[in-house]
Amino acid sequence: MPDALDLLKTRRSVKPMELAGPAPSAAELDTLITIAARVPDHGKLKPWRFIVFEGEARNAAGDVIAEVFRTDNPEATADQIAFERARLARAPLVIAVVSRAAP
Questions:
Q1: I want to staple 99 with a disulfide (CB 3.0 to 4.6 A). Which of 28, 48, 70, 95 is the partner?
Q2: Which residues, in sequence order, are bridge partners of residue 94?
Q3: Other C-beta atoms within 10 Å of 103: how many?
Q4: What is the enclosing helix (H) or strand (E) of 48?
Q5: Alpha carbons 80 and 73: distance in angstroms, whole number
């Protein structure tokens, strides 16, 4: 238990611009997602899904993000749209957690 507490006490978030490779290995990623999926679920709904974006998938998702941003913000500048397009490419790996807490 002390190891877990020490880990929690020293955990820090980093800015997306400071993220750098390497990303977790496939085995590490599998472990992380397995652990993350074990959060309390008293209704046994398992309402979450994990979407892993790596490699070219980050850029493809960025194109969609940029298009939605442009549609929602018609006054957006080209720099703002480019910023949104690169949003997922800033990290070597991105995991989206999608949840719907309903049967």
A1: 48
A2: 53
A3: 7
A4: strand 48-54
A5: 10
Q: Which residues contact 41 (CB under 8 A, 6 or more apart)?
A: 47
Helices (H), 1-103: 2-10, 26-36, 56-72, 78-85
Q: Give the closest residue to 38 by CA, choosing from 30, 46, 26, 29.
A: 46
**Single-letter amino acid code for the residue at 62:** G
The token duo for 93 is 């790996």
Whether the predicted model's global pTM rises above the 0.90 cut: no
Q: What is the pLDDT of residues 42-93, one digit of tens each?
A: 778 788 899 999 999 999 999 999 999 999 999 999 999 999 999 999 889 9
